[in-house]
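Marked as duplicate of an earlier ticket. Keeping the data here for the record.
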Amino acid sequence: MQLTFLGTGTSGGVPSLGCHCEVCTSTDPRDKRYRSAVFIENEGTRLLIDAGPDIRMQLMPLDFKPLDGVLLTHIHYDHVAGIDDLRGFCVFGDINIYADEATVKALKITMPYCFTEKLYPGVPLLNLHTIQPLQPLTIGSLEILPLQVMHGRMPIMAYRIGKLAYITDMKTIDPSQEEALQGIDTLVVNALRWEREHHSHMLVPDAIEFSRRIGAKRTFLTHLTHKIGLHDEANARLPEGFQFAYDGLKIEI
């Protein structure tokens, strides 16, 4: 299984609008971060996790082939605003979107033109599937276990796929959900910045502690602000087994 990081930035992306810090003005492409999303391929199955406002540009470098499914973590703009841009994939058939009940309901409100009785020509054809935490699903060759984590006070979805766990926007996790993460090899998890507590996101020290608690063998940190610092310098501060992900990074699982 191969995972491609399409985006590793937080809700505002990096560079941050109006900022002239050393990260936002860096010429290193690893310091340029679209909004967080990943693409997973396994034995012919192609899966997207989240589709934020940058998704059109994020998908441009990839082969244009059918998408077998889109997993959503939650309804926030930086994770769903690009769903309409997936309409091109409708040449292969309807797009299957998997999300929790709250996100499914919200999509029908934010994208009402996709769910009317009479759809106008060209509208993206979306099949919404409501999923539940700890209730497995199969998409093509992939066995997926949805999990619930807390984004502040908001329950959102995370996903375990084999030995991989993908978690973004997490602040806390219930022990019943954390137990399902035991035995993973690769953890992708959010780490907003180094310091200054945030009400709904983990910081880098939180992510390191969480990874060690569940016993992940290697951890890639994502959903990063420009406060992380220049890529090489920031990576040098991390302990062994931890790495800041960057846009375009491909890893084998």
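See parent ticket for discussion. Helices lie at 55-59, 77-80, 101-110, 175-178, 204-214, 231-236.
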